[in-house]
Amino acid sequence: MGILGRIDTFITWFDGVVWGLPLIILILVTGIFLTVRLGLLQVRYLGKALKFMVKNEEDGHGEVTSFGALCTALSATIGTGNIVGVATAVCAGGPGALFWMILAAFFGMATKFSEGLLAIKYRVVDKDGHSLGGPFYYIEQGMGPKWKWLAKIFAFFGVCVGLFGIGTFSQVNGIASAIQNFFDPNKVHTVAIPGIGTYSWTVVVASLILAFCVGAVLIGGIKRIASVSQIVVPFMAVAYVVVVLIILLTHLGEIPGAFRTIIESAFGLRAAAGGALGAVLMAMQKGIARGIFSNEAGLGSAPIAAAAALTDSPGQQGLISMLGTFIDTIVICTMTGLSIVIAGTWNIGLEGVAVTTKAFQTTLPFPEQFSSFILMICLVFFAFTTILGWDYYSEKCLEYLSNGNQKVVKGYRWLYILAVFIGPYMTVSAVWTIADIFNGLMAIPNLIALVALSGVVVSETKLYLKRIGKAS
After folding, report:
1. Cα separation of 171 and 80, whole Å?
2. Angle (nearest 5°) at CA 355 between 20 and 280
3. 452 Cβ neighbours under 8 A, 6+ residues apart
4. Relative orientation angle of helices 454-471 and 431-452, to the nearest 10 degrees
């Protein structure tokens, strides 16, 4: 085995270590711990959270509305994971993986509430009036200056995730692949690029258009990212939900059977006696891991966007932030999973997006080509907004590491746009694995802070709930 083979083997092994059961259990246990301490807040105040999501702030401090901050966070979380991630989880762990994905998201809502609350409570405003916040600030401000090293570790991993994987190469490659598979699956129309290789013209055109669109948004900073997200995210989420609703409404009689299959699979009731425990563990691991990857509860990314919200109420922003997990996983991922189970495409030898594509083609009352086109459009929008969201996250991490040096941040922005441009031409077999590793490593400092500051979260929440109780 050559040196490249050894590096690849090590990366794969280390990814298994980082995203193994210990981290998954740590994220899940943190969510359960916060749920108990907050007294099932995600159930009792879900209605208020939905109301506050679209409420206009009057005199808060910040750069964007709470709705804009939520959309910026959702732009990074609602992505290919909602289509490809769910399919991967159900194929690997069986339909029961969907049950564990939903359960992890339920507890993750308490985690996301705590992240949003701490983001506002400990944010700072720089000399230019920009709101800065996120795990690096609530680690340093909340846990004390002696923990600044932990904040810097989080920020470093955040920059790496944005530039080397989830933010750029993997998303761009996904967009280019989806467009090529629809318009030129057999690579009939190709062009030879010296020193790089032969590519379909659809990939070349897609890379140019994508780099231009991303650059046009990113040069405008958080306000332009938020304004675009407020239009694109609700549009793409509603459009996708409507399409999946068509599947569910035209297969109403099959939904109870699908839920029965999911529950039986989740608890190993469909496996042979000797393999029941293994089936349950596999369903748990795949469901929880993919759910966490999709909604990012506990990873510490969403509070970076929440810190820019135009509000002075940590509690209110906490309620709005927890909606991200609810919308991403409990609504969108559940609907995707149900359509896959109803269509039965999870166990016929397909992988990834092909599973969801086949489910759409099988269950939608439209021609197969049109169904594939709908899914392609959803994938393109989902991946595009993920690129925008992760640029914002990684820029804020870099701001913290560079002590607010805007020249460094602007230089990084152009580097990010360049990464978007070259993404379709790269072999990214190891990029997803490296991105997964950095994503998981981001979570560890954040989870330590959430547990350490849980007392602050509880006391702030009690004061806030008392205040809104009197107001009502």
Report:
1. 8
2. 40
3. 142, 143
4. 70
Residue 348 · residue 38 · CB < 8 Å = no
Q: How far apart are CA 308 and CA 317, in angstroms?
A: 10
Task: Check: CB of residue 233 under 8 Å from CB of residue 75.
Answer: yes
- pLDDT by residue, tens only, the chain of 472 residues: 566 567 677 777 887 777 777 888 888 899 999 999 999 999 999 888 888 766 655 555 555 666 666 666 666 667 667 887 788 888 888 899 999 999 989 999 999 999 999 999 998 877 766 777 889 999 999 999 999 999 999 999 989 888 876 777 777 777 777 788 788 877 788 887 776 677 788 888 888 888 888 888 777 666 666 677 667 777 777 888 899 999 999 999 999 999 999 998 888 766 544 456 677 777 887 788 777 777 778 888 889 888 887 778 899 889 988 988 898 889 889 999 999 999 999 888 877 777 888 899 999 999 988 988 888 888 888 888 888 888 888 888 998 899 878 889 888 988 888 888 877 766 545 666 777 788 788 889 999 999 999 999 999 999 999 888 765 5
Residue type, 28: L
Asked if 102 contacts 332 with a C-beta cutoff of 8 angstroms, the reply is: no
- Provide the 8-state DSSP code for 198: E
- CB atoms inside a 10 Å sphere around CB 2: 7
- DSSP state letters, 278-291: HHHHHHHHHHHHHH
Give the number of other Cβ atoms within 10 Å of residue 292's Cβ.
Answer: 29
61, with CB counted inside 10 A (0-12, 13-18, 19+), is: middle
Q: Could you tell me which of 182, 203, 192, 225 has the C-alpha nearest to residue 68?
A: 225
